[in-house]
Amino acid sequence: MRSSIVLSLLTLALAAHSVVGETTLLKCRGERESIVYQDEPCKPGMELRNFDTDPAMVSVVPGSPVAAAPAAPAAQRARGQAARRQPEQKIGLGKAAERRFIRTGMSEVEVIRRIGKPEVNASAGRRQGKDGKHWSYLPAAGDPDTITTLTIVGGLVANVERKVVR
Known about the structure:
This protein is an alpha+beta fold. The chain is built from three helices and seven strands.
């Protein structure tokens, strides 16, 4: 009988623990239009989002890898001499191979971070017209035989045109 009581208490404790483990995160409107995140139900009409039923979207923007510092030559290490510090290599402003991944809706900043500044800026030095800015990227080692032209309107890529040239 004693073991059945212990078993019942253990079952009850596990059941209570599993209910407590299922925490809900809610986004609610607080006082003075503030945003409050809580694990309790919002006041009626104040729920903005239930993260269990409407999970947050996560976007990842890839970064550029940093080149590793060169190792000291074996002869210097054997003699116990410290390697002379090499000047830091500048990280390129963009990669030509990434040009094919530029899509409409990307921001100017995202484009520059990803593929660098354009070689040809057709709107430089004049007022931006209705058709926006026109940036062109000429053929390069990572994107040979291709000219990529972007139309930027309102700070966003509106059109991407890639032409093969030989």
